[in-house]
Queue: 3 jobs
Job 1
Amino acid sequence: MPRVYSFPMNHRPSAISHQLFDWDQVDDVLLDMDGTLLDRHFDNFFFEEELPRRYAAKHGLAVEEASERLLTMYRAVEGELNWTDLNYWSKTLEIDVVALTKELEHLITCHPDAVEFLRHLRARGKRVHVLTNAHAAGVEIKIARTRIDRYVDRIVNAFEVGHLKTRPEYWPTCQRLLGFEPSRSLYVDDDEACLAAAQQYGIGYLYHRSKSSSRLPAQPSSRYVSIESLHALITP
């Protein structure tokens, strides 16, 4: 049975504009991390290829069977904090997932346009926040590798908020943490479900990053304005 959520009366779903926005109407920029600033190839490779291989080797399974088992496990907790909790997966799979992330950190990279866009936001004097569903241990490794923290005001992981970004409960708590005005905020994410929750809360400007992985073709959204590159948001 699908759940129906209610939202605060002062936060109505925002309209989706297909026109260029005016930067003077934006105070805060909210950016997803994996897929939007960072190349999602790492996460796809890690959870869909390498982790199944390690799990197969540990439990004496064919890689195909291990992949099917892990996919079932992933789906069982999708939408919950356990979905991205590296400690949960370490315990469940009996594999040190944090150590494995560290082992493969050389595969963690920014999208080519990420730093330029972050510098552009700094030059415009915008407050910039990274909002990620990732677990703190994974965030620490990725930030140490990419150093995108140099260009942002704060990085908030879902465990600080208590919910994933797809949940309506996420947004009022996140707003209290960061102090942004929803109608004067711009949010970019490669996940339509996250954008939908943000839209319901009244985030003013929403953009879908269609090119989340360097190894996969762009996947435009049918619901939101899609951009392949963050360069599309860099205006004079």
Note: The chain is about 40% helix and 10% strand.
Job 2
Amino acid sequence: MSRYKGIIFDLDGTLLDTLSDIANSVNEVLASYGYPTHTKEEYRTKIGKGFRNLIEQSMPEDTEPVIIEEGLGKFIKAYHENYKKETKPYGGIVSLLKALNNKGIPIAVNSNKRNDYTNNLLRYLFPDIVFSAIYGERSGFAKKPDPQAALEIAKQMQLDPKEVLYIGDSKTDMITAQNAGMDSIGVLWGFRDEAELRHHNATYIVKQPQGIYNIVF
């Protein structure tokens, strides 16, 4: 029997490839101000700490706070139009989640993406998957790497944090897992590289979703 009885997944870069829709939306905003835009690859290191941080990281360093705030509003409008255009699950993710459901392993999502978009994407792209909890960025809960949401999910699963496996693609996820007292899996198909995951003490590293199943079972 597996030592892991519950699993928490990150969203962007772990379950879903959201890079193109995010990059296109931010670039629309930057272009509206005449600011330089960024390549899709450059956005890999900007995603993961919430929408506001994304806009701050994407605009020129000397941008005034009022423009950042205005740009955030523009981004939310642009992303609302774009967020379902190219976003899709990574290969092998749907079959992995179905297998975990079939095995009776509770699965949850903990993301720094705004809660409404997190829920909408999961319902849209995983209509047949049962999630025991979904925590996007929401009032009353600190963003990752604070472990507040991860610990609340473990509590809802009625599991000790040591029985829960935390899966993500970035240092933010690995630190969240450590802060929550959970083992972690760093995935290599996401937005960050293996060196970052190892440097931040990923318990396991996997190259394909099947590797997650093999660790759990």
Note: The domain at 6-17+87-216 is CATH 3.40.50.1000 (Rossmann fold).
Job 3
Amino acid sequence: MKFILSVYNEIYILEKNIKQSSMFKKLLFVLLFSASYTLLFSQERPIEIIEEAKANRLFLYALNKNEKDLDVLITVEGTNFRQSKSVPRPVRVPAASKVLLTNLIVERNKRANYTYKLEVSDSLSRRALRREFESIKIEPKKKVIVYIPENCASCDTLVSNLDKSNYLYTSYRFSEKPELKGQLAPAFANSTVKIDSISTPIISLGGVLHVKIEDYDQLLEELNK
């Protein structure tokens, strides 16, 4: 499956004074760069490419916001820059990570105008380059919100493990936001368990409340259902 992503890379505005009935015309020329993206499998979240400039170099990084490792091959074409002449090789981009794919040497006093093509595969190749990577936080399959009762003994450990994980989440303490307890109370109106008696984390996974998840392993199990 292929699709074209078009984004603005550089805008040049050329203004010419053209006298015509005492009016002036402004000519706007917009230079676009496009990216061709080839998916070799069913991908939940597309690889994102971000650029970082340092001195006369432009570094192109891949962000993998999926929960699986991927091989990413980038091919760059354009003007006002130089790059390695070696044959491009795929780069292993681990799950939930940021990895450098390539860098461009920009010509002095110019700005790189480029297009890139990506080939992304989950059929991991032995030829793929392994580079240093930076872990990033990603959205889990289900949005995670942790509500922490005042007398919760296991909450700190759960929150600590979430902090160490690659998942984005939100947590609230009833001691700091007591109004949240009132907002959640109706959900327990027809339950034998009342919100004031709960001493375990109250966890919302994709909008569904859970009161029997006490540790991180149980949370992962519910996330993957």
Note: The chain has two domains: 2-135, 144-223.
